[in-house]
Amino acid sequence: MSWLTAEEALAQLGTKPQTLYANVSRGRIRAKADPADPRRSLYHTADVTRLAERHAGRRKSETVAAEAIQWGDPVLPSAVSTIVDGRLYYRGRDAVSLSASVTLEAAAAILWDAPAVELAGEVIEGGPPVIRNAFLALAGRVTRDLPSLGRSRSVLRREATSVFSTVSAVLAPGRGDFVHIRLANAWGRPETADCLRRALVLLADHELNASTFASRVTASSGASLSAAVLSGLSALTGPLHGGAWQGVSALADMARHAGAEEAVRRVLSQGNPLPAFGHPLYPDGDVRASALLQHFEMPRLFEEIRKAGEAATGERANVDFALTAMAESFALPGEAPMVIFALARTCGWLAHAMEQVEDGHLIRPRARYCGPALVAGG
Fold first, then answer.
1. What pLDDT shows up at residue 21?
2. Is 241 a catalytic residue?
C-alpha cells in the first residue's frame, strides 16, 4: 500500500483539512500514524485518488451508484449498527463494552430492538458443529417458511428467534442456556466459554458488509427470513469475508516451516496482500481484535506472525487474525473460526433482514452495459 502526507492528500482532493478528517472518520479514507513522526498521519493513496476522481466535475447517477457499492458512501440507511471514529456500535451501544458482560442472546435482543431473545426448538445431541449442517438446516426451512412481507414486527421477531434457534441447534449442538456454553461443550473445551462469548458478541454485526448486504437484498424481495440468512451465510464463506481465516491458517502453516518473517516476506513479494492485516473502517486498528486478544494467550507462532506482519505492512492484525489465533490457542477444530463467525453473524443478518422488510423497498440496482455492440432484430 502507498500513503500520502496530509499536504499531498489535501492537494489532490482540493479540500480543507476538516473535510479530509471527516472522510477519515467516516471510513472513506484510511489513515495511519506516520512512522517517522507519530504526531502526523498518512493517508491511503487509493482512497484519496478515488474521492478526488469522484468529486471532479459533475457526476452521473450511474457513477455515483457504482462508487457507492465499492467502498463509497453508505448505500442504505440503517439503525442496526455503525462504525464511527474506529468504534463499533450496536444501536448506539459500544460493542466492545457489551462484549465484556453480555451474551450473544442479549446482543441479538439489542440488534433486533426486542425485549429479549430466548432460544427454543430442537436440541441436537452429538455430532460436531460444522458449517455444512447450517446450510442444510436453512435450506430445509426455506422450502416451507412463509415470505416475510405483510407480517407484523412481533411475528417477524418470533420467526427470527426460530431461525436463530435452527442455526444454533446445529452449530452449537447440545444442552445449555446459552449458545457460548453449548458451543464450548460441543468442542469439549468448557474452559473456552467466556472467550467464545466475547467473540460471538463482537462478531454479531458489522454494518453493511458483504454478507449483510446479501441478506438485505434477499429480504427486500419478500423472501423468508431463513432465505435471507442462507444468503448471508453463502457470502460469508468467501475468502475476502468470513473465510479469511483460511488465509491466516495457510500463513501460519508456512511460518511453521520457514519462520514468520520469511512467510510474511514470501506473501508480500508475490504481490499479494497479507491476510487479516488492516481494515478500511479501522485506520487505528480493529477494536474487535484488540478486545478479543486480551482474553487468551496467543500462541508464540501467531505472536511472531503478528509482529512480522505489522512491521512489514504498517497495518494491525484484524479480527480474522484474532479469531484464528484463538482457535489455535484452544486447539479448536479447523473450521472453528467459520462456525463462530456464522453463529454470531446470524443475529445481525436477521436484524438487517427485519429492518429491510419494514422498509418495504426492493433493492434493485441497474447494470451499466459494457458488452458487445447491440444488434437490433438479430
1. 78
2. yes
CA distance 140 to 135: 9
Which of 47, 145, 205, 320 is the catalytic position?
A: 320
* Annotated catalytic residue within 241, 284, 295, 359: 241
| Closest listed residue to residue 337, CA positions, set 219, 206, 202 | 202
For residue range 9-22, list pLDDT tens digits in order: 888 888 878 788 77
% of residues, the chain, pLDDT over 90: 70
DSSP conformational letter for 86:
T
Q: What's the number of CA atoms in the CB half-sphere (13 Å) around residue 152?
A: 3
Residue with cell 454479531: 204
Instruction: Give the percent of the chain with pLDDT over 70.
Output: 92
Annotated catalytic residue, options 44, 180, 206, 279: 279
Predicted structure pTM score: 0.82
Backbone dihedral angles phi then psi of residue 347, each to the nearest 5 degrees: -65, -45
Q: Is the pLDDT of residue 297 over 60?
A: yes
Query: Residue 86 region, left (φ>0) first, then alpha (ψ -120 to 50), else beta?
Result: left
E strands in 55-151: 81-84, 87-90, 93-94
CB 163 within 8 A of CB 226: yes
